[in-house]
Amino acid sequence: MMWKKSFLVFLFSLSIQNAVLDDDRTKKTDECPSPRLSSQTTVVTKGQNVSLICSIEKKSQTIMYYFYQGDKYLRTKDNGESNIFNLRISEARDLGPYKCKVQDSISSVYRCSKYSPDFNFTLLDPVATPVLNISVIQTEAGLYITLRCISPNGSLPINYTFFEKNAAISPAISKDVRQPAEFNFTKKSTQGDEEYRCEAKNRLLNNAKYSQYSPIPLTDGDGCALCLQLLPVGLLLVLKVIALIPACWILPKYKARKAMRDNVPEDYGHTPMEVGEYESMYKNQAGEDLTAFPSSPPMSTSG
Ligand SMILES: *[C@@H]1O[C@H](CO)[C@@H](O)[C@H](O)[C@H]1NC(C)=O
Ligand SMILES: *[C@@H]1O[C@H](CO)[C@@H](O)[C@H](O)[C@H]1NC(C)=O
Ligand SMILES: *[C@@H]1O[C@H](CO)[C@@H](O)[C@H](O)[C@H]1NC(C)=O
Ligand SMILES: *[C@@H]1O[C@H](CO)[C@@H](O)[C@H](O)[C@H]1NC(C)=O
Ligand SMILES: *[C@@H]1O[C@H](CO)[C@@H](O)[C@H](O)[C@H]1NC(C)=O
Ligand SMILES: *[C@@H]1O[C@H](CO)[C@@H](O)[C@H](O)[C@H]1NC(C)=O
Q1: Residue 37 and residue 85 in one domain
Q2: 18-44 as b/e, with b when 16 or more CB fall inside 10 Å?
């Protein structure tokens, strides 16, 4: 019984010891943590204003923040308590490396002072307005359209997206070489009012650029694609004209003839010769009323 008790006591004291050690360890790490230096963006372009933010977990009113570029202390227009440092990127040497330090001489939280890890900006060229190039090939399935888009300037990689009117028709196509992004699609038919444009953007924030809107071109290197599409319509037109030629040619003749005939009085009685001829003919055949069938002979009723 005795040994059991002492064993329990031993275990108990061991666990207390561990707890104290754990507490010590957390206290030690809390005592002097490194601050963290960050910015809204790590990629910048020349002329951009940015802010460096020095942050720690436990804030206090009496903490002082110090900013450095390399080993050089940066004076700040902000008061010493601010954890934000504003700067303007005008040349390559404004990119860094930056670091910051926190110090608290009054509170016991930050008795020591520690530097943050280095922070560098990356300089990027903004994309220039991209140029869209459209080519069209007529195929059995419809118009085979190739859209090409390239931005002459701007740091790579550049993401390109193609739009019809305002709707994206392609995924983002990422190019890490300065070559046009390409997107192919087939269109069964065209209303003729389609407009396309492309968007180019790189990692710089809020820096997307758009090409001009372009319609589907009427011609391209491979011939006149739209002409081909319009061919059936053209053929129909030609056929109509062909159909109209005889009508135009024959109608006047027909009219002239009709006019001549119209001059002949309708009353057969006025031309006894003619009437006499008809009369004798039809009377001989059927003996029916002539006037009812002036131009076609009556059916034979010989029976
Ligand atoms: C950047 O800040 C400076 C003054 O600090 C101001 O003159 C300039 O217009 C700002 N530039 C941009 C792009 O906001
Ligand atoms: C920051 O840039 C400097 C000089 O360009 C370089 O020596 C350093 O390694 C960079 N640090 C980081 C964290 O990228
Ligand atoms: C491209 O960049 C060069 C130099 O940075 C500049 O001279 C040129 O005007 C730019 N071109 C366009 C289309 O923005
Ligand atoms: C469009 O692309 C075609 C074929 O690649 C090329 O011949 C033509 O010069 C390009 N046009 C423009 C304006 O880039
Ligand atoms: C688009 O079509 C052209 C011409 O047929 C072809 O050369 C090119 O590889 C196609 N591009 C893509 C991304 O499918
Ligand atoms: C570019 O597109 C790729 C996917 O194609 C995507 O993962 C990446 O985040 C895009 N980058 C930008 C800056 O939009």
Answers
A1: yes
A2: eeeeeeeeeeeeeeeeebebebebebb
